[in-house]
């Protein structure tokens, strides 16, 4: 019997989707989705799509470096190369296709205006070794970006050069280490306190800098256990690392007390700023007693995310840590802009450099473009909309799914556990795979680790109510199907994706790290 769904379209509950996994196509293609072999399995090894002139030299001056074997790359004509990459794009989910609900990893729309600005010749065609007199516009942009980052955070200094969130963590902890060394306390302060719900990069970074990591417990309502923190603070602690809002999607209510206790113990407060977009324009971390915080430009200020980079994770620093900021930084001399690049004079106490040059110029342009197009009121609305969207999802799903922390609102992401799946023989992983069949990227699964079977959903501030309703509609239908015992829909999913479900355990334990051409076939095994 057909019923009406929440957005007014007729639907038949509990029917399998199209059943094309029971009747696969003969070619492996599905409508407009073409099936093709891996690029290394093609037959075009002896051709090229361009004409290259015969080399004028034989390469004998290269000695033992002369290639003796074929280069080992397939040859593609221009249409073959174009079709290959178009087909690859059809196999991937993207923010330009639909909502990308990964939690604690803000995947939001990147305005095309930002891309246009980054491609301006004065920004895209410059080189870091040019004379500073020829790149005054770029230095002014870096100075302006620094001004707004410090203004938004209430911090006096910023290091722009870190190239990712984890790189920013490294910058912050190295500044903290340098500060303790300057006071002669580094040898006694060898511990960093990290909550159980922290991002995995936090303890990893602390260990990389040479600290031992001590875990801080979490309360039943998903926040730092202040009593446990206080019991572990002492003269051997260098810093604490707290994410706020935290990875459970909650604001740390006791943040001021956490800061007070930390500073009383002579330690520094490092804040993981991964979730700054939930409070930007509303709360200044400097007012909370934070000493160092990285800002993921791709998460808060919309620079591109993923694909291996380039990234940007500037670090804002308190007055106590500002003298130890890494070179380089920009100074307005009144007659122009210059880079402080050496660990002397103004940078006498700098702990060194984090990268060869000044960081990711294209990311600076995109971030500042985003800030200027929004203005102060717009950035405040960024935080408000991010929190509103997450709470809307939580409110619309909590009657079918089980919120991990049901009491009170969440911040920028809604966190559910798998309590509601008990007795269904369906796991969080099964549910996530079924989401792929409905055309959605799964939410973050099994993280944070403190929540069993975690499903962490972050809609971001750039999603409209219509898109949220479309996502919620799919989630409700899947949740009801799970409760109604439609196990087959979930256990084999995804059925409609370009690739079916993989044996992930086997892949992790016995990975194939080298491609070998299959014998007697042009297709992947």
From TrEMBL:
> Is Translocase a UniProt keyword of this protein?
no
Which segments carry the region annotation Disordered?
A: 1-24
* Oxidoreductase in keyword set: yes
Q: What is its EC number?
A: 1.4.4.2
Which reaction is the catalytic activity of this chain? N(6)-[(R)-lipoyl]-L-lysyl-[glycine-cleavage complex H protein] + glycine + H(+) = N(6)-[(R)-S(8)-aminomethyldihydrolipoyl]-L-lysyl-[glycine-cleavage complex H protein] + CO2
Please name the source species: Brevundimonas terrae
The superkingdom of the source organism is Bacteria
Q: Where is the Aminotransferase class V domain?
A: 181-306
Q: Give every Glycine dehydrogenase C-terminal domain span.
A: 384-482
What role does it play? Answer: The glycine cleavage system catalyzes the degradation of glycine. The P protein binds the alpha-amino group of glycine through its pyridoxal phosphate cofactor; CO(2) is released and the remaining methylamine moiety is then transferred to the lipoamide cofactor of the H protein.
Q: What is this protein called?
A: glycine dehydrogenase (aminomethyl-transferring)
Q: Which InterPro entries match?
A: Aminotrans_V_dom, GDC-P_C, GDC_P, PyrdxlP-dep_Trfase, PyrdxlP-dep_Trfase_major, PyrdxlP-dep_Trfase_small
Q: Which NCBIfam families match?
A: PRK04366.1 (NF003346)
Q: Which UniProt keywords apply?
A: Oxidoreductase, Pyridoxal phosphate
Q: Where is the composition biased (Polar residues)?
A: 1-17
């Amino acid at each position: 019997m057909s019923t009406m769904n929440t957005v007014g379209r007729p639907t038949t509950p509990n029917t399998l989707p199209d059943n094309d996994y029971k009747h696969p196509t003969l070619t492996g293609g599905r409508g407009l989705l073409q099936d093709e072999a891996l690029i290394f399995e093609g037959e075009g090894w002896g051709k090229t799509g361009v004409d290259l002139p015969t080399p004028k030299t034989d390469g004998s001056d290269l000695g033992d470096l002369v290639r003796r074997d074929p280069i080992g790359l397939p040859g593609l004509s221009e249409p073959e190369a174009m079709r290959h990459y178009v087909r690859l794009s059809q196999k991937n989910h993207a923010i330009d296709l639909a909502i990308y609900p990964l939690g604690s990893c803000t995947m939001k729309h990147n305005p095309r205006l930002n891309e246009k600005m980054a491609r301006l010749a004065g920004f895209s065609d410059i080189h870091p070794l040019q004379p500073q007199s020829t790149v005054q516009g770029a230095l002014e942009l870096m100075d302006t970006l620094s001004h707004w980052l410090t203004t938004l955070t209430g911090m006096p200094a910023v290091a722009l050069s870190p190239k990712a969130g984890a790189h920013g963590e490294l910058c912050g902890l190295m500044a903290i280490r340098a500060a303790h060394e300057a006071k002669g306390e580094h040898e006694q302060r060898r511990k960093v306190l990290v909550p159980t719900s922290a991002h995995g990069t936090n303890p990893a970074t602390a260990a990389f800098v040479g600290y031992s990591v001590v875990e801080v417990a979490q309360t039943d309502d998903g926040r730092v256990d202040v009593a446990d923190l206080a019991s572990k603070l002492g003269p051997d602690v260098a810093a604490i690392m707290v994410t706020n809002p935290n990875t459970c999607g909650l604001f740390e209510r006791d943040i001021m007390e956490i800061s007070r206790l930390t500073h009383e113990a002579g330690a520094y407060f490092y804040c993981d700023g991964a979730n700054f977009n939930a409070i930007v324009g509303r709360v200044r971390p400097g007012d909370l007693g934070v000493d160092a915080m990285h800002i993921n430009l791709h998460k808060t200020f919309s620079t591109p995310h993923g694909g291996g980079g380039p990234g940007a994770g500037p670090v804002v620093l308190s007055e106590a840590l500002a003298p130890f900021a890494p070179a380089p930084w920009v100074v307005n001399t009144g007659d122009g802009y210059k880079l402080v690049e050496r660990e002397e004079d103004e940078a006498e106490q700098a702990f060194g450099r984090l990268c060869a040059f000044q960081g990711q110029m294209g990311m600076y342009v995109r971030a500042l473009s985003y800030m200027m197009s929004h203005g102060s009121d717009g950035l405040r609305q960024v935080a408000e909309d991010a929190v509103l969207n997450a709470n809307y999802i939580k409110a619309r799903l909590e009657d079918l799914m089980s919120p991990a922390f049901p009491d009170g609102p969440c911040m920028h992401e809604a966190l559910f556990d798998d309590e509601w799946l008990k007795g269904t023989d369906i796991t969080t992983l099964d549910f996530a795979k079924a989401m792929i069949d409905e055309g959605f990227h799964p939410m973050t699964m099994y993280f944070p680790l403190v929540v069993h079977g975690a499903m962490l959903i972050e809609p971001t501030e750039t999603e409209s109510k219509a898109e949220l309703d479309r996502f919620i509609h799919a989630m409700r239908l899947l949740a009801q199907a799970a409760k109604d015992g439609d196990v087959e829909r979930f256990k084999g999913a995804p059925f409609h994706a370009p690739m079916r479900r993989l044996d992930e355990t086997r892949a992790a334990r016995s990975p194939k790290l080298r491609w070998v051409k299959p014998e007697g076939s042009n297709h992947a095994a």
